[in-house]
Design brief:
Elements (H helix, E strand, L loop, with lengths): L9 E10 L2 E11 L4 E5 L6 H9 L6 E6 L2 E2 L5 H7 L1 E3 L12 H23 L8 H11 L15 H13 L5 E5 L7 H16 L3 E5 L3 H7 L2 E6 L2 E7 H4 L3 H7 L10
Parallel strand pairs: 3-8, 3-9, 6-7, 7-8
Antiparallel strand pairs: 1-2, 1-4, 4-5, 9-10
Bound molecules: adenosine-5'-triphosphate (ATP) and magnesium ion.
Adenosine-5'-triphosphate (ATP) binds next to strand 2 and helix 1.
Length: about 260
């Protein structure tokens, strides 16, 4: 009999990150499986964004290991990790302000195409790969951005900028999508649309890692939860079980959206 082994799309083992003299992320274990949403929660300053920076390659791990799609990427550059299928958004929304919505998305798609060309030098291009304009068009359509395609990003509402940033990440056609507080600044209706989008993306096989303070949203979308405090994992496991623990919820210090009260 052969046992089937599920390899998480992204995993961290005993990862630590030091900034100056302080150990900001301390021996963290984390698994982010494909087709599911994993929430990373914890109070302000817990180290969530720092862990994101480390997983995406922007900050080095002092110790521990990171695997992406089965490969050890602990010492890989952000570009190498991007090539293997990781994409992220930032807590402080990061778009190119003077570029239009369409141009912002094209940056993501062209980045992907450039990485593919590099890969093609070694392996040959896959004929069935969609090209940049098709990808940009389909992502704009999916996110409801077609009507804003020629608008400059700098004039957009925060919620739309967040969508543009998610769109740019999706245009790289990632396997792992890391979102740092994507619901911040969104009203209830926008949060509802974000929730639907996340569930749809996960159902298509994407591995999603979500930093979020809104525990209502977390409870609605995330199968798994990892709670950090002072850089350490306080608890990890099934989110439904962990969110039912009042002591843990109060330590996490999250908010509940108004939707929960309705
Ligand atoms: N460059 C830096 N040098 C030293 N300490 C830093 C640096 N950047 C962040 N920190 C500290 O690291 C800790 C973790 O910060 P981080 O931004 O990762 O937390 P977070 O969990 O994302 O918080 P929040 O929920 O507020 O976004 C904080 O105490 C912060 O002050
Ligand atoms: Mg943060």
């Amino acid at each position: 009999m052969t046992a089937s082994i599920v390899v998480p799309a992204l995993s961290a083992r005993s990862v630590s990150v030091r900034l100056g003299d302080a150990l900001i992320v301390d021996s963290v274990d984390l698994d982010v499986p494909s087709g599911q949403i994993t929430a990373l929660v914890g109070p302000n300053g817990a180290g969530k964004s720092t862990l994101f920076d480390c997983l995406s390659g922007a900050l080095p791990a002092e110790s521990g290991s990171i695997r992406l799609d089965g490969r050890d990427v602990t010492r890989s550059s952000p570009d190498q990790r991007s090539r293997l299928g990781i994409a992220r958004t930032f807590q402080h929304v990061s778009v190119f302000p003077t570029l239009t919505v369409e141009e912002n998305l094209r940056v993501g798609a062209e980045h992907r195409e450039n990485l593919q060309l590099l890969r093609a030098l070694f392996r040959g291009r896959r004929a069935d790969e969609p090209r940049t304009p098709e990808i940009v068009e389909s992502v704009m359509q999916r996110l409801g951005l077609l009507g804003l395609r020629h608008e400059r990003a700098q004039g957009l509402e925060t919620s739309t900028m967040r969508l543009v940033e998610i769109g740019r990440a999706l245009c790289t056609r990632p396997k792992v999508l890391m979102l740092d507080e994507p619901a911040s600044g969104l009203d209830d209706a926008e949060s509802d649309r974000l929730r639907a989008l996340l569930l749809e993306l996960a159902s298509e096989g994407l591995a999603i890692l979500l930093v979020e303070h809104d525990l209502t949203l977390v409870g609605e979308v995330a199968q798994h939860l990892c709670a950090l405090d002072h850089g350490q994992v306080l608890a990890s496991g099934r989110s439904a079980e962990l969110l039912a623990l009042p002591d843990l919820v109060s330590l996490i210090g999250g908010t509940r959206s108004r939707r929960a009260a309705r």
